């Protein structure tokens, strides 16, 4: 398994992972268009300053996707997702580890952050297993339905 940059040819596969507008909203936020086309999906996935990566198996099967950017001095992870057929097998831990290694080196930081919906208990559990802890957002509480998590001491 390896991490590689997102490429345009990955978009049709990623698009198949979403069937409802609510899924897209919870994953990508309100500015992501739905319904989408391959062009709009790729465009909305590439905001300035955000680095997009896919987790790929040795047989080139797409297993996951995630992004990182520098926010408040942290390697901020966003839009993390595992292929629906491969959820529950621990691939999120591999994706997190690989994204954090690359992101922290590229962004020259040893801390990470992310947001997660409180209702997404499987994601919350996965992030806690990875060492993330819930903290108050530096700008105060953003939304009652969302938590802000931090991970310190990344080598």
TrEMBL record:
Residue ranges of every copy of the N-acetyltransferase domain listed in the record: 1-152
Ranges in a coiled coil: none
Superkingdom of source: Bacteria
Classification via InterPro entries: Acyl_CoA_acyltransferase, GNAT_dom
Pfam assignment, any one: Acetyltransf_1
PROSITE patterns per UniProt: GNAT
Protein known as: N-acetyltransferase domain-containing protein
Organism taxonomic ancestry: Bacteria, Pseudomonadati, Pseudomonadota, Gammaproteobacteria, Alteromonadales
